[in-house]
Amino acid sequence: MKTVYVCSDTITGIYSAIYDAWKDRQSEETCKVALKHALEQELFCEYRQVEETEHKAQAVENLIKKHLGRRVYWELYHAALSHDAQKGDAILGTMLAARRIPDSTKIMEHLSHPKVEKVFELSRSVGGEAHSYKGFLRFKELANGVLYSEITPKNQVLTCLAPHFADRLPLENWMIYDKTHQMFVVHEKEKKWVLVWDEQIDRSFASCVSDKEKEYAKLWKSFAKTIAIESRTNPKCQLNHLPYRYRGDMLEMENVI
Amino acid sequence: MRIQESMSMYEKLNILTDAAKYDVACTSSGTSRKGDGTGMGSCEQTGICHSFSADGRCISLLKILFTNECIYDCKYCINRRSNDVIRASFTPDEICTLTMEFYRRNYIEGLFLSSGILKSPDYTMELIYAALFKLRRECNFQGYIHVKAIPGANPELIQRVGFLADRMSVNLELPTAESLRLLAPHKTRKNILTPMRLVQNRMEENKQELALYRGAPRFVPAGQSTQMIIGATPETDYQIIQVAESLYQKFELKRVFYSAFVHVNEDKALPARTDEGPPLLREHRLYQADWLLRYYHFQASELLSEENPNFNVMFDPKCNWALKHLEQFPVEINRADYKMLLRVPGLGYKSAVRIVKARRLGVLSFSDLKKMGVVLKRAMYFITCSGRMMYPTKLEEDYITRNLLNVKERIPEEVRNMGYRQLSLFDDVRFGRGLYEKGGSAV
């Protein structure tokens, strides 16, 4: 009989489930990790609700960093941020598979293993989306000088973006709102960034932009239009690089789509 | 022509963007730098694209000219002095504000500053230096800066600018000295190569300085690049990639950019205007070949020759090479060395690395390759896994050519139709063969 560990769709949740499965000395055939919101009932399974704690999550994180190395940790972490419902299972499967090979740190090279391949694929797509947003995200300056941005990512990429922008704009107050997952990342000038969720924030402040903002928005829009060479117009190529799903939040695409 | 005092920022930006758009490079890659916390900005090794314009090119940098006033009269250039266009100039202050304000809104990854020649090369270079100095030292901007070195400017000035920029480029403009004399009467090959050599030598010295003292200021950390116009002059593809190859070898350039010639001026020295638009396919093939030179260990002489000096329209240069060298195929995925894997059509350098790593841990099959990102519909004619091909295919040039041209089909015709095929009058495999072989000249 299979044991299915049911957890919430957070890093803490997934790592806690892995912690429990690991502790119960499960093997790949006898266990599964499933997400609460995307649970598909199966026959001959025992369902176990995971008690989620920071302590368990920390223990798993340390376990991965110690035995699989930092690079694998980032692959697994990125996979855990994915929107795919199978992610928990893929991560657990990869960790179990890593135990069986001589050098566990090389587990990500073992691409012919289906779970490893899944983690590779998820991590690649999350990393790809995060990288895209590093470029496609647009800040606007609010009347109080705060830079504010809204994005609609498929995956939970905020924690991948925050260190990048914190390094880049250390002297600015900025915040990014993830509309898909209703999460904020907030950075106060010369301080560390914080992730905020489950918080009811009235977003009407976002419509009140500074005087300069309209001027620069106009300059940028006209720049983005002028820089194209007319005789080379190629919407298909543009679409390949810049899919429609990003365009909704992009200033220069407002009236173009 | 005088600069109008009343010109607004909006108008200026439009004019100077419009004038800069024919410059090709908009990459922000090649250097990695963390912000130091005192200003704004950082750089990523891979570069970041911030948007894509309607022509499908990436917008990464704020690509503008300092001024579009120019003392030169290059026949292909929109800003040539004999053209009647509105002229404008930025001030160093304006460039700084614009860059900083765009950067903090995450519109751009940095600045790409080029310029027409105002008064003299030295004068222009000084203005550029003033703008960069202000941006780097007063605004503490740590984002990416790509700047043009202006041929004929004082070497001392070029060096100073190099310490503020991430990448420098000198435009080669046209592939040969002969064409340059024809279309850019005020520029000489020697004048262009001198600053290129200067930057190269200074970068070499800088390597030693950095080895000695890690905190030494860095000179052009992202390397130098150049660009040339394709299709304005009668050079063949073979000549062009030979020029590119020697630039990579002798000048250690990071990139050579190719720019399909766009008709902006009427001049008897330029090719006649046609309805076909810029030679985009040719430019694309040259870029493909360029990647083969830089990442795939190919030599220019392997791809083209005096007898066959132009690229095939139908196939990319690698595929074309493979079809002419079928004696080296099929390649066994589980055994072939890395360099040979790189030569298989449908296999990129990333998937080649993945294959080399993954096969240490087990035998690879075709389904594994697919997961690694190998384009099997191309590669399957050239590879075996554990001694077997994916489908029973023939290792014949005509057969592979025919199947590869049917891009929509994933499996060979014979396999799909269980080995049978309707006879047709036009089945002769030699029919239309000349088309594939002489294709290059049609561009």
Task: Describe what you observe in this structure.
The complex is a heterodimer of chains A (257) and B (443). With 257 residues, chain A is of the alpha/beta class. Chain A has helices at residues 11-23, 54-67, 69-80, 87-100, 114-136, 158-168, 211-226, 235-241, 244-247, and strands at residues 2-7, 31-35, 45-49, 140-141, 147-151, 174-178, 183-187, 193-197. In chain A, helix 6 (158-168) links the parallel strand 5 and strand 6. The longest helix of chain A is centred in the middle third of the chain and has 23 residues, at 114-136. Chain B is α/β, with parallel strands linked by helices and 443 residues long. Chain B has two domains: 9-266 and 278-303, TIM Barrel; 317-442, no CATH class. Chain B has helices at residues 9-20, 92-104, 121-138, 155-164, 177-183, 189-212, 237-250, 280-295, 300-303, 317-324, 338-342, 349-358, 366-371, 376-379, 397-405, 413-416, 433-437; strands at 51-52, 58-59, 61-65, 110-114, 144-148, 167-169, 224-230, 255-260, 331-332, 383-384. In chain B, the strands form three sheets. A six-stranded parallel β-sheet of chain B has the order 3-4-5-6-7-8. A two-stranded antiparallel sheet of chain B has the order 1-2. A two-stranded parallel ribbon of chain B has the order 9-10. In chain B, helix 2 crosses helix 3 (121-138), helix 3 (121-138) packs parallel to helix 4 and helix 7 (237-250) runs parallel beside helix 8. The chains are: A alpha/beta (257), B alpha/beta (443). At the A-B interface, helix 5, strand 4, helix 6, helix 7 and helix 8 of A face helix 1, strand 1, strand 2, helix 2 and helix 12 of B.
